[in-house]
Amino acid sequence: MADLRVTDTKGYMLYREVEPVQPYPRIDAQQPHDEKSRGQDQAREKKDGQPRRRFVAMRQLIDRLKETGQLERIAYPELLKELGNVGIAHADRELFDLLQTHQVTIEGLNHLAAQIRALMATPDVGFGPPLEAEHNVLPYFSRDLAVVQLRYLHLELLAGQEGPHLVDAIARDGSFRCATRHLQVEFHPQVKAQYDSSLIVDLRMMVAVGEMDEENRRAILFERTPGVFALYTDKQISLSI
């Protein structure tokens, strides 16, 4: 079995043909002309004076984890390295058993393992679908978080490495997908019109949970070791830890 373990505004002049616009007649001459605009400005100032609280779901999760565990901040290069290791561990525990269940040959498993090893130094980390309670990988579940995935896309299985189960599934449905708790694998042929060559393999592994604000700033959290949780945030966002 394959093994992946690794130790300022400008003024302007009106055209002469254009005369100044005359003000509309007023219903109530006693009413201040700028009352409406002043009221709008006050409402806007009030709204702007109430900053939106960001990363609510992540803050709630952190508050729970701090009760029984330890949180540590990490930098982005460290995040990539550690999430890469998490993903490799998932592959070792789940990926190859899953593929063997679907009759992928040992040659195919070794071919995939070599491709993943070659990509380990430059992992592709991205946000996936909303986190569901049954797929949570942390001691506590917080709504409105998203799955953070390690993605190995456009891998391949050569013709003859896929095994009869995938051959039949691709011929029948055009693609095939299987999954475990931490990972999802999708197979589809390189030539979409027919299956007569190698398969493209897209592998996505859940390695952390995260939240993104309207400015696309990210907060990502994962369990580093039992009871110790690592937190990465863009631009040193304070989450009160």
Written description of the protein model:
The chain is of the alpha+beta class and 241 residues long. It is built from 5 helices and 8 strands. It has helices at 35-48, 56-68, 76-101, 106-119, 163-173, and strands at residues 70-73, 124-130, 146-157, 176-179, 183-189, 199-212, 218-225, 228-233. Strands 1, 2, 3, 4, 5, 6, 7 and 8 form an 8-stranded mixed β-sheet that branches. The two termini are 42 Å apart. The relative contact order is 0.18. Residues 31-51 have a biased composition (Basic and acidic residues). Residues 19-51 are annotated as: Disordered.
Structural class computed from helices and strand pairing:
alpha+beta
Helix run count: 5
Radius of gyration: 28 Å
Q: Which sequence of SSEs, written as H and E, runs from N to C?
A: HHEHHEEHEEEEE
Q: What is the share of helical residues?
A: 25-40%
Strand tally: 8
Low-confidence stretches: 6-18, 21-29, 45-51
Distance between the termini: 42 Å
Characteristic terms for this protein:
single chain, 241 residues, alpha+beta, eight-stranded mixed β-sheet, elongated
